[in-house]
Design a protein that fits this description.
The complex is a heterotrimer of chains A (302), B (275) and C (328). Chain A has 302 residues and is an all-alpha fold. Chain A has a domain of 166 residues: MetI-like (MetI-like fold, Orthogonal Bundle). Chain A is built from 13 helices and two strands. Chain B has a six-stranded mixed beta sheet, sandwiched between helices. Chain B has a four-stranded antiparallel beta sheet with strand order 2-1-4-5, covered by helices on one side. Chain C has 328 residues and is of the alpha/beta class. Chain C has an eight-stranded mixed beta sheet, with helices on both faces. In chain C, β4 and β5 form a beta hairpin. The longest helix of chain C has 18 residues. Chain C is globular and about 65 Å long. Classes of the chains: A mainly alpha (302), B alpha/beta (275), C alpha/beta (328). Chains B and C meet through α6, α7 and α8 of B and loops of C.
Chain lengths: 302, 275, 328
């Protein structure tokens, strides 16, 4: 039964990938200019050379042909060629991916590990002092854009002479603080919602209280809405990490992506988009598995 | 008693079946026929495997005839198909096969049934939208049927008066009514949707089950009076045999999707409905 | 039974809800006592304040409810006890069997773990020992198989879920079990089975049972004493046989006449009408100054509109009605 569920989810993911890749191809094609656009302005390049380069890079192919040749290249493990670096894209992306994964995974885990206990505490003591204080902090963080957070962090680190672009602490901290408010709010809301259900009152009537009540009884019942949040939080982290990597100089996929867009490095851009899609799908897939594990009703609805 | 030839309309159900097919995904590999009673008696088929089962026979060929103006009670254990039968007759579910006739009017396809058959649900209060006013709740079925002539002819005050509610309640929110008032409103709503002149069927699906005794007594009196005034036909579905024995002219016992026994009230010996 | 043998003594308990500017006196001046080993029925319609009374004893009402009065349970004053003391009492000495079994069980936790959670809350046993105790309690209520223990609530039938709730209530061997409409959503057969189960369990435990219901026929089988509530007051109480067969208060009489199988004598077989009490429960926000039942009462006296009747003893029964004791 579990295998069937996994299989179904996997099929969804594959279909999703096909869709995203096609979609990004179309979008990029629609965007004006291409890799050799700047070269066109260069008076030292003759039109003949330009045409020859175009032919070589395959920029003259139709959209469908480009897509097919990309798929062929993907099958070979190269995922296209970067025009700027003149290397297969996979070779360029591999080291960068692991760097980005370091950041995203750490902040994902850290933000959830802080949000859940803090959310339980807020809900258990709701409208008390801790809850209100945390609420104010959350609102402040929520109102602050990621850019501002990153710049503030950078400023602080530089002033303290503690900044080093190879140190992951700062980017992880910024990403976590950016993701925390929404998670915390939702965890608190989901728990308060569960706490008003009849079975919560019955648990209290049976004398269950404190940590046993909140972690043993209420949190498992709140998992269902929180798992969808999990998938969304992965998506949020990916887009934030792009920004944070660029601002804090972390050698992940982010800076590469921005460069590639500016240079119209077609395949590099498409592959970076596919990578984000991969992270997102991985996140939602994980969320689906968690949902299956934690909510028995899902298992019945198969 | 040749009910179908009587000048007053009568309900006739022939060979009604309802089969549920679980959602078929192209990844589903097995389809096993399922029989409720077999499951109950066999220890081998446990609930963990139930998700492989994809066919459920809720109704297995129900035949029913009911003369107008009478009350039929349907009793039986849970899972016997009573509610499914009610919903099929009321036009809320499309049966898989079979016929439903009300006099010479066929009640299939399902949409044709609403003018002649209305269903009052269990817990009538919960079937009312709490943000509606009482007047809205009464007019809702008429608006849904998109019958503008009937909407304009319908008088909210009269509708309320019929069930013993004061006309002054028309602008109250339904959430502000008491349990008894909500129950009366549910009946008023059902009556509003029915054809005012013609004979009609009211199906009470466990509606009187969990009510307070005083409210239930008042509702029984109301229903009895309405039946006399408007020649309504009632189908009362209940797991409470004493209620069935009190109100009905005939009692039918259902089990596993078919009617297994049918007796007039006077000869009802009170044997347990669990055959 | 002597004074020292009273398990729960409630004196003048009142619960008032505050909704904005209005005050709703949901329970007014309740006084009763429960003795060890007794089964007391609390009879009343929805809105009469019976569930509120039960929750008030366990102090589980929301903060908007103001409590007044006293409730003494085994030497502990429940209305003044600290939350810590109450947590020790709830589930272990006074336990609660709620209505609506599907909503009252946690949907994502297996049934055995829900019962063992109650054990864990009150003892220092290991996980394995808690589960063993829970298993024993589930067997006691008739759910013996391992497969049932490991089920989730939605996989069980209504009757089975109600049994799980009862297992949760008795696993810590309480002295008082409060059962709130335990058979409300069940069909007749399951109803009888659950009642028999409750009766046998409290006999085994030597505990008392406070059975809250709106259906007098349930009480006929199990209750020793019956208290009738109307609009937040106890209007009549006494031994079960006397209250249900020879009721004194006009409300109790009217209520019992609504029963279908019994009191329809004098009607022709074709007359399906039932004798009913006209009118409905009063609105709590605008209770009349006198007896709350007066507007619907057939036997009203002029003084009923002016003052609230005081409880009068008539034999073993207590009754709050001017018919049985005029004001001085």
């Amino acid at each position: 039964m579990f295998r069937r569920y996994l299989l179904r989810r996997l099929v969804h993911v594959i279909v999703l990938f096909a869709g995203i890749s096609a979609f990004s191809f179309v979008l990029l094609e629609l965007a004006p200019g291409d890799f050799l656009g700047e070269a066109k302005l260069n008076p030292q390049m003759s039109p003949a050379t330009l045409a020859a380069l175009r032919e070589q890079y395959g920029l003259n192919k139709s959209l469908g042909q480009k897509y097919l040749s990309w798929i062929g290249s993907a099958a070979r493990g190269e995922f296209g060629i970067s025009f700027a670096y003149n290397l297969p894209v996979s070779k360029i992306l591999r080291p960068r991916v692991s760097k980005t994964l370091q950041l995203t995974l750490s902040s994902l885990l850290l933000s959830w590990f802080i949000a859940v206990p803090l959310g339980v505490w807020s809900a258990a003591a709701h409208n008390g002092f801790v809850d209100r204080a945390v609420g104010v902090a959350i609102s402040a963080l929520l109102a602050t854009p990621d850019v501002v957070l990153a710049c503030l962090a950078l400023l602080m680190a530089v002033r303290l002479r503690a900044f080093h672009s190879a140190n992951p602490v700062l980017p992880v901290a910024v990403l976590t603080l950016g993701a925390l408010p929404i998670l915390l709010r939702h965890v608190r809301a989901a728990l308060l919602d569960v706490a008003n259900q009849p079975f919560a009152q019955v648990a209290r009537a049976n004398g269950i209280s404190g940590a046993g009540l909140w972690f043993g009884c209420l949190l498992p019942a709140a998992v269902n809405p929180l798992t969808s949040l999990f998938g969304l939080s992965v998506a949020g982290l990916i887009s934030s990490s792009l920004l944070v990597e660029v601002l804090l100089g972390w050698p992940g996929v982010g800076p590469l992506f921005v460069e590639a867009i500016a240079a119209r490095d077609f395949y590099l851009v498409v592959d970076s988009v596919m990578l984000s899609a991969l992270f997102l799908s991985g996140g939602t897939f994980l969320a689906d598995i968690l949902l299956y594990v934690f909510d028995p009703r899902i298992r019945m609805e198969l | 008693m040749d009910s179908l030839n009587s000048p007053r309309r009568a309900l006739a159900v022939h060979g009604l079946t309802k089969t549920y097919h679980a959602q078929r995904s192209w990844l589903s590999l097995k389809r096993i026929e399922f029989n409720w009673s077999l499951c109950a008696r066999s220890k081998k088929i446990d609930s963990a495997r139930m998700s492989y089962l994809s066919v459920v026979h809720a109704l297995r060929g129900v035949d029913l005839e009911l003369p107008a103006g009478k009350t039929l009670a349907i009793v039986g254990p849970s899972g016997s198909g009573k509610s499914t039968l009610a919903r099929c007759i009321a036009g809320l579910l499309q049966p898989t096969s079979g016929e439903i006739w009300f006099g010479d009017q066929s009640l299939l396809p399902a949409r044709a049934a609403h003018r002649y058959v209305q269903l009052v649900f269990q817990d009538p209060g919960a079937s009312l939208n709490p943000r509606f006013t009482v007047a809205d709740a009464l007019l809702e079925p008429l608006r849904a049927a998109q019958s503008s002539t009937r909407s304009s002819c319908f008088s909210v005050a009269e509708g309320l008066q019929q069930v013993g509610l004061p006309a002054a309640l028309a602008n109250r929110l339904t959430s502000q009514l008491s349990g008894g008032q909500k129950a009366r409103l549910a009946v008023a709503r059902a009556l509003a949707a029915l054809d005012p002149d013609g004979p009609a069927i009211l199906i009470l699906d466990e509606s009187l089950g969990s009510m307070d005794l005083c409210v239930r007594a008042q509702m029984i009196n109301l229903l009895v009076d309405l039946q006399d005034q408007r020649a309504l036909t009632y189908i009362l579905i209940s797991h409470d045999v004493s209620l069935a024995a009190h109100m009905a002219d005939e009692i039918a016992v259902m089990a596993e999707g078919i009617i297994v026994k049918r007796e007039p009230r006077v000869s009802w010996t009170g044997i347990s409905p669990h055959v | 039974m002597s004074e020292s043998e009273i398990l729960l003594r409630v004196d003048d308990l009142s619960v008032t809800y505050r909704a904005g500017e209005t005050y709703l006196p949901v329970a007014r001046n309740l006084s009763f006592a429960i003795h060890p080993g007794e089964v007391v029925g609390l009879l009343g319609e929805s809105g009469s304040g019976k569930t509120t009374t039960a929750l008030a004893l366990l102090r589980l009402l929301p903060k908007s409810a103001a409590l007044k009065g006293r409730a003494r349970f085994r030497g502990v004053e429940l209305m003044e006890a600290s939350e810590a003391t109450l947590q020790k009492i709830r589930g272990a000495q006074i336990s609660f069997v709620p209505q609506e079994p599907l909503l009252s069980l946690n949907p994502v936790i297996r049934v055995i773990h829900q019962v063992s959670a109650v054990v864990r809350a009150h003892t220092r046993l290991t996980g394995r020992q808690c589960r063993d105790k829970a298993g024993a309690a589930l067997e006691q209520v008739g759910l013996a198989s391992e497969r049932l223990h490991r089920s989730y609530p939605h996989q069980l039938s209504g009757g089975q879920r109600q049994r799980v709730l009862i297992a949760q209530a008795i696993v810590s061997r309480p002295s008082l079990v409060i059962a709130d409409e335990p058979t409300g959503s069940l069909d007749r057969e399951s109803e009888q089975a659950i009642l028999a189960l409750l009766r046998s369990l409290v006999d085994q435990l030597g505990a008392s049972l406070l059975l809250i219901t709106h259906d007098p026929s349930i009480l006929a089988a199990v209750a020793d004493r019956v208290m009738v509530m109307y609009a937040g007051r106890i209007v009549e109480s006494g031994p079960q046989a006397e209250v249900l067969e020879a009721p004194l208060h006009p409300y109790t009489r009217g209520l019992l006449e609504c029963l279908l199988d019994t009191a329809q004598a004098g009607r022709t077989p074709d007359d399906r009408h039932v004798r009913a009490i006209e009118g409905s429960l009063p609105d709590f926000s605008s209770l009349p100054p006198g007896c709350a039942f007066e507007p619907r009462c057939q036997d009203r006296l002029p003084c009923c509109r002016e003052a609230d009747p005081v409880t009068v003893l008539s034999g073993a029964q207590q009754i709050a009605c001017f018919l049985y004791g005029l004001p001085q």
